[in-house]
Amino acid sequence: MRGLLLTAVLVLLSGVIMAGNIDILGIRSAEYLMELSRNAVTDCADGVTYNPAGLAFMDDGIHLNFSGQYIGKDYTITGTFLGATEETEVSTTKATPFIPNFYAVYKTGNIAAFGGFTVPAGGGSVDYADGLFIMPLLQTGLVQAQYGPTHIAIMSEGSMEGTSFYMRGIAGVAYAFNESFSGAVSGRFTSAHRNYKGQGTFAVVDLATGLPVGTTSADLDVDRAATGMSAVISVDYMPSDKINLAARYETATALDFKATANVVSTWDAIMPYLANGAMQRRDLPAVAAIGAEMQVNDEFRLGGSANYYFIEASDQGEDDGIDDAYNDGWEANISGRYQFNDAFAGALGYSYSNYGGCDTTYTDLEYNLNAGLLSGGINWQANEVFDFTIAGGTTFFNEGEGVGIYTGESFDKKVFFAAAGINASF
To answer: pLDDT, tens digit, for every residue of 52-75?
Structure first.
């Protein structure tokens, strides 16, 4: 029992809040939410994050892109609390009101210098006001160590909050070797922050007699922070003026999270990684990406792309916060963009993400369910300098079922995205 609880807390406290794949937030521009396939983009500064090599084919001058994203969430877990007989639901609907992204490109001749700021992972919070099903199980591990194996902790009230926010700076250069082929290299600095806050009040019950023998409580308030560097190599090839192909490879970002405990938690006895100054490794995985765009005619453009996430290689051991049952993840995207006239264009896109998870990776704070995303948007070319984009999308998640200590629990998500952005070229 103690070993199972330790494993549960390890995974629970490293749970991702919102991701495009495990720990990766794929939507990093309003243009991405509009089209979903951006790995071969060559006409917008958001190529800094999606296709750096393609920036070498932009017009000479300065190109800027800024966007903000809203994420609406409805996460629901259905299960039965320890000591209860009726199934119930716990849920969080805490939205993420604003995620910013900014990119800048200076193109002259065959060279493009670029930089940017983005939120590559996390970017949100969950707030389970009624607590989580795992909490009385965790407390029971402590109660049995004190009172004996016939005793359990029944939660009378509790809550659990989690926040995850990663910030990244990017800088690099792209070079066009000729009219058809270009390459780019860039470096990235990532600063990651996670916070977990919870509390619970429990009645201690002796199962042998069915009588309460006391009360106990638990508090949790831990900040975790890490920084890391990574690199990106990107190439772009235009076999004709109608077709563009691109590929990039992102190295893994090594992140050693250091804990700062704001309160002394009794859960330290089960999980020493809650203690002040404790370290835990959880890397952002390496990514391999490909993309293609085809200009079907003057009005219509098709796009397709795919990303592969090397999650298994990010597994750094039993205490890394990544469940060993994770496989590598992947996603595939397709989009169509139509130019209605000189001022307005519209697009639709669809993406399917496989997170590499399974029933043994689902926990109360980390259940990466495979999902489809349908989105679309409108772009308005206001004048020769400025254009504006608005986009929205909704997800279709598979339902998950828990096993082990999560047997009897089911997991469901609903997520809505909205974004607005502005481009400027001088």
So the answer is: 999 999 999 999 999 999 999 999
- Cα(49)–Cα(242) distance, integer angstroms: 23
Do residues 301 and 293 touch, judged by C-beta distance below 8 A?
Answer: yes
Cβ contact 347:333 at 8 Å: no
The answer on pLDDT for 21 being more than 70 is: no
pLDDT tens track for 342-390? 999 999 999 999 998 888 889 888 899 999 999 999 999 999 999 999 9
pTM (2 decimals)? Answer: 0.93
Q: Which amino acid is at 117?
A: F
Domains annotated on the chain, with CATH = 2-130+165-186+229-425 (2.40.160.60)
Which of 138, 145, 146, 162 lies closest to 265 in space, CA to CA? 138
Residue 79: C-alpha distances to residues 85, 179, 401 (Å): 10, 59, 10
Phi, psi dihedrals of residue 371, rounded to the nearest 5°: -155, 155
What SS3 state is found at 27? coil
Give the 3-state secondary structure percentages of the chain, helix then strand then coil, rounded to 5: 15, 55, 30
